[in-house]
Write a structure and sequence with these properties.
Length: 448
């Protein structure tokens, strides 16, 4: 029988948990390396004596690289293996994080971060696909939701650890420490984990597939190809990203996933600069970033349970409404500041910044859960990579233009918030376009 059917009703085995833990940890490290630059942006601006608008290319460069890395890494994962691609990705983003510590101009930083973006981008779709292939369909929503908080956890780690490293090592030394850690973990991960049986079987390696499956299956068993191969129109054909069955899912994710990622990067990359410009100290601004990471984790982890309980359509609508309302409240609070913020204003704005990113992260997690279920195993890594790449277009534009938008209104930040609000409205369409929504568990049980 297919590997997915063999594990359908089985409890999670230790090796499956190990795979999930390694996948999550890699994405946490990915998030640390990715987000560290935006957190130290004020320090670099002072050291290099440049305007914040001129630093946009350096912040956007990693997203540009991620655009190519996501789709190329996704396709590579479907071809040479999710684990092999993850190892390559860790080598790329680890080494370029170290290299970033030795840059001295915006363009040097931009080139290094763009190359690092290839690794950042390749990591996400392959980590999700690797774990998806190893766990059953009933455990998948929770596993994917857990992995989707990897980068938010990395953001929190960055915000908490950087203040400890900066006094003794500076931002350059912190980058070296983060990069070396990435390289070491990548090597350990490659030695411990294995490619999923379904992938090995599809590549004509039945012995390797059987050996890999034996880590979670007991007794005698024979593996068969996954049932998705029966959807092929011609013998030997494999289901691709742009197969007709994926049409509506592709469209919905290009529109709404792109909007969600644009929001999260537009908020995260410019939070410290926005708040310090509004009168916050750097420490207070970093507190907001820390809460963004904490609430992102809560939102992301809860996504799996919420989707299974209420269904993906209802949750997407609810989350989109919450995002829109929170951005409006945040704009009202920040625009209402006159002089240094009071303690209550700091608390409220920090909470709203965290809530906004938390809701967006929950939405992104829900989209990942839908994609992990919607795309067949044959193109799961490539499909998720394609969607992530699509999301980079507006994300890059938002990060690149963030400094310009903050400058546009002089002492007002209304243009920045107006763009965020317009993008938030694009999250809603996914609720109606997707044709492979996850139904509430209660509804399934009613008609069982």
């Amino acid at each position: 029988m297919p590997f997915s059917a063999a594990i359908a009703d089985a409890p999670l085995r230790p090796f499956q948990i190990v795979v999930a833990v390694f996948g999550l940890t890699l994405l946490v490290i990915d998030g640390v390396d990715l987000q560290s630059l935006s957190l130290v942006t004020p320090l670099i601006l002072d050291e290099w004596s440049i305007d914040r608008a001129l630093f946009g290319p350096a912040l956007a460069a990693s997203l540009f690289g991620m655009g190519f890395g996501s789709i190329l890494g996704g396709l590579l994962g479907d071809r040479i293996g999710r684990l092999n691609t993850l190892f390559i990705a860790s080598l790329i983003f680890g080494s370029t994080t170290i290299a970033a510590a030795y840059t001295n101009t915006v363009w040097e930083m931009s080139v290094v971060r763009m190359i690092g973006g290839l690794g950042f981008g390749a990591a996400y779709p392959n980590a999700l696909a690797l774990v998806s292939d190893w766990v059953s369909a009933r455990h998948r929503p929770h596993a994917i939701a857990l992995l989707s908080v990897g980068i938010p956890v990395g953001i929190t780690v960055s915000a908490e650890v950087l203040p400890l490293l900066l006094p003794d090592h500076g931002w350059r030394g912190a980058f070296v420490i983060f990069g070396v850690g990435s390289l070491i973990f990548g090597v350990i991960m490659r030695l411990v984990l294995r490619e999923p049986p379904a992938f090995l079987l599809a590549k004509g390696k039945p012995d390797a597939a059987h050996k890999s499956a034996a880590r979670v299956l007991e007794g005698d068993f024979a593996l068969a190809p996954e049932p998705e191969d029966e959807l092929a129109e011609r013998p030997g054909e494999r289901i691709g990203i742009f197969h007709a069955r994926n049409k509506r899912l592709n469209i919905a994710m290009v529109v709404s996933f792109s909007a969600a990622t644009t929001l999260v990067y537009g908020l995260l990359n410019w939070t410290t600069e926005l708040l310090t410009s509004a009168g916050f100290t750097l420490e207070q601004a970093l507190r907001a970033t820390s809460w963004q990471g904490i609430l992102s984790v809560i939102g992301g982890v809860s996504a799996g349970l919420l989707v299974r309980t209420f269904g993906s359509r209802a949750m997407i609508l609810g989350a989109a409404t919450g995002i829109t309302a929170t951005i409006m409240a945040l704009a009202w609070m920040v625009e209402g500041l006159s002089g240094p913020p009071s303690a209550s204003q700091i608390t409220t704005i920090v909470a709203l910044e965290g809530l906004a990113v938390g809701l967006v992260s929950m939405t992104i997690s829900m989209f990942y859960v839908v994609m992990a279920q919607g795309y067949p195993s044959a193109c799961r890594s490539g499909g998720i990579g394609f969607v992530i790449t699509s999301g980079r277009v507006f994300s890059i534009a938002m990060v690149f233009a963030g400094g310009w938008l903050l400058n546009l209104g002089g002492d007002s930040f209304l243009w920045y918030f107006a763009v965020l609000l317009a993008v938030a409205l694009l999250v809603f369409p996914a609720a109606w376009i997707i044709d492979c929504h996850i139904e509430p568990v209660r509804r399934k049980e009613q008609f069982a």
